[in-house]
Amino acid sequence: MKKLSLADKLSLNKFEVNEGEPHIRIDQQVCRTCREKSCLTACPAGLYSEQNDQITVEWAGCLECGTCRIICGKKAISWEYPQGGFGIIYRQG
Ligand code: SF4
Ligand code: SF4
């Protein structure tokens, strides 16, 4: 049996998106004072980006690892697990 790469495993995941109910929120005012912007590089799924002086996160693709919540030294990220039944469904551990 072929051993799956990490990318292969991640591609098997399924996401149940709770439309209009983001489980991650960002305080833009705090972000404007942030030099490090660690969130842009720390998210393993690359979901954070910066455009027009705004930090955005494509929360629907969240792996629920919690890295962004920990790495943001300014506590600008409000993070909760998605409501029951929503979020990522891992298929390969
Ligand atoms: S690390 Fe935190 S404060 Fe800095 S840009 Fe990212 S979310 Fe904003
Ligand atoms: S919890 Fe993990 S995957 Fe989700 S946005 Fe934060 S760093 Fe990215």
Verbal overview:
- The protein contains 4 helices and 6 strands.
- The mean pLDDT is 94.
- It is α+β, with helices and mostly antiparallel strands.
- It starts with 5 loop residues before the first helix and ends with a strand.
- The strands form 3 sheets. Strands 1-6 form a two-stranded antiparallel sheet. The protein has a two-stranded antiparallel sheet with strand order 2-5. It has a two-stranded antiparallel sheet with strand order 3-4.
- It has one domain (6-89): Alpha-Beta Plaits.
- The chain binds iron/sulfur cluster (2 copies).
- One iron/sulfur cluster binds at residues 24, 43-45, 47, 57, 62-68.
Short description, anyone?
The chain is of the alpha+beta class and 93 residues long.
- What's the count of strands? 6
- Element-by-element helix/strand order: HEEHHEEHEE
Instruction: Enumerate the strands of the largest sheet in spatial order, edge to edge or round the barrel.
Output: 1-6
Largest sheet: 2 strands, antiparallel
Measured by DSSP, the beta-strand proportion falls in 15-25%
Distance between the termini: 17 Å
Shape call: globular
| Total helical elements | 4
Function: Could be a 3Fe-4S cluster-containing protein.
Protein name: Ferredoxin-like protein
InterPro entries: 4Fe4S_Fe-S-bd (IPR017896), 4Fe4S_Fe_S_CS (IPR017900), ETF-QO/FixX_C (IPR007859), Fd_FixX (IPR012206)
GO molecular function: iron ion binding; iron-sulfur cluster binding
